[in-house]
Write a structure and sequence with these properties.
single chain; alpha/beta; Cobalt-precorrin-4 Transmethylase, domain 1; Methyltransferase, Cobalt-precorrin-4 Transmethylase, Domain 2; 11 helices; 42% helix; elongated
Length: 272
Amino acid sequence: MLRFIPTPIGNPQDITIRALREFEKATLFLCEDTRETKRLLSILSQRFDFSMPDADFLSFHEHNGKERLVEVSSRIIEEDVVYVSDAGMPIISDPGQILVEYCQQNGIEYDILAGASAVVTAYAASGFDEGEFTFWGFLPHKGSSRSSQLSKIMNSSINSILYEAPHRLEKLIREIASIDKSREIFLAKELTKKFQRYYKGTTKEILEQLDSINLKGEWVVVIKAKESQEKALYLDDILNLDIAPKIKAKLLSKITDETTKEWYSKIIEKKI
């Protein structure tokens, strides 16, 4: 059976007991990066009640995933196989999606363990009180595709979360500021790690702090939704519109207690 196991996004103590037990009985590890997985398992064996498994470790990423499936397809069915990302929840913005799709298409049993996620951790820390958000992963690095996607985010009526590399963070904030300097954003750096930091404010305020911020590390960015710019039509606005009497009467009836027929009679008789 194939199990997708979340790994700590920083602090090793965030590993779950269930994850440790699944690691111990696994005969095959499919890893985004085998070196990272082995390093994590070594740390876990030193600090916790965990025995290193006698297992094979194979890389599984976006460049070799489909080819690797041909190689391990029978083992996924017959053995205890686990998939792990470098850190955090597998499948979310992650090549593990290839495996899930394969299992679904071929009727293969699989399981997803609960665990750490930088997305929900950052959103909880942001303090934004809306109960919904859109996760965008990493934006395209450059070009029209990047500007187009950022434009959608900045015009969204729902809060947005994305990841950004340290060497592109300043560029991102300046891009946001060029669209809306007063937009509120929240930045989370190195979540759960020793140098975890939070920054919240308008893009203008964050830009003013950049010189004093060490940009090295992993960043999650939460962007506040665009405020509604809806405008209401008032009674006088409708009365002054140059439109057909029936349409005007219908609009007036929507914002008053009088019926369309009553308003129509007033308009025709020019009592208003």
